[in-house]
Specification:
The protein is mainly alpha-helical and about 240 residues long. The chain has one domain. It has a two-stranded parallel ribbon. The longest helix is centred in the middle third of the chain and has 35 residues. The chain is globular, with a radius of gyration of 20 Å. The chain starts with 11 loop residues before the first helix and ends with a helix. About 25% of the residues are buried.
């Protein structure tokens, strides 16, 4: 049975209202900025695609008239989201932190390390996990079984995988936050490792673009290590 801390600071509905109210203040500006930046990046999307293709794939194909255009649009949106991520993180943490009184230097700490972890996760995925995973999966080809990769599926696979890794690398900082504000305790994370393993397996199956065991392990393995790292960080920071 999961054990939860009783020190939650306020009614959950009040917390949700404050969170949504704070978040709503910046949603329109964030959405507009994302569209504008993506539109600007669209003119450079061919170069971005070439970089990704040289690193991860050989030849790409398209099977519909609009395929290449839609792929460039998706890539532009991804690049815009990637570049604007510090702003997104700042808005998110202001909304999350306000109900719990997390402001000033504490808020800056959470924003900074969330951004660092996000970009560390994406870099780990792009330079280590994706090349290994793609090489492994394409290794099942043969002389009579040659891969034909569509540009749309390539963009979907790489961008979703990269963003997913960026998100899961945030786990330690969110563990610190929920322990600091009293939602969960350090002992909660220590006592419920088996549930964490189960949840990690489910998340890996849902977040990975393909449901094969290799991709699940490539995501689930680092995610569990990050879970353990979060517990270690809580011990170092002496947060109970």
């Amino acid at each position: 049975m999961l054990e939860q801390s009783d020190s939650f600071p306020m009614d959950k509905y009040t917390t949700l209202v404050i969170f949504l109210t704070e978040l709503r203040k910046s949603v329109r500006a964030l959405g507009l900025s994302l569209i504008v930046v993506a539109g600007a990046i669209f003119f450079l999307s061919s170069e971005l695609l070439l970089l990704a293709q040289d690193h991860l794939a050989d030849k790409l194909y398209f099977f519909s008239v609009a395929g290449p255009f839609l792929a460039h649009v998706k890539l532009s949106l991804f690049a815009a989201l990637y570049g604007l991520m510090p702003w997104f993180m700042a808005v998110l943490w202001r909304a999350i932190g306000k109900p719990f009184g997390v402001v000033g230097s504490q808020l800056f700490f959470f924003i900074l390390f969330t951004c660092l972890l996000f970009y560390a996760g994406t870099m780990f995925c792009y330079f280590i996990t994706l090349p290994f995973g793609i090489k492994f999966l394409l290794g099942f080809g043969s002389e009579n079984l040659q891969p034909v990769i569509s540009i749309g599926r390539f963009i979907n696979f790489t961008t979703i995988f990269i963003l997913a890794f960026g998100v899961i690398f945030e786990l330690p900082i969110f563990m610190v936050f929920v322990a600091k504000v009293g939602v969960f305790t350090r002992s909660f994370f220590e006592k419920n490792r088996r549930y964490a393993v189960l949840l990690i397996a489910v998340l890996s199956a849902l977040l990975t673009p393909t449901p094969d065991v290799v991709n699940m392990l490539l995501m689930g393995g680092p995610l569990y290590l990050l879970y353990e790292a979060g517990i270690v960080i809580l011990k170092i920071m002496r947060i109970e």
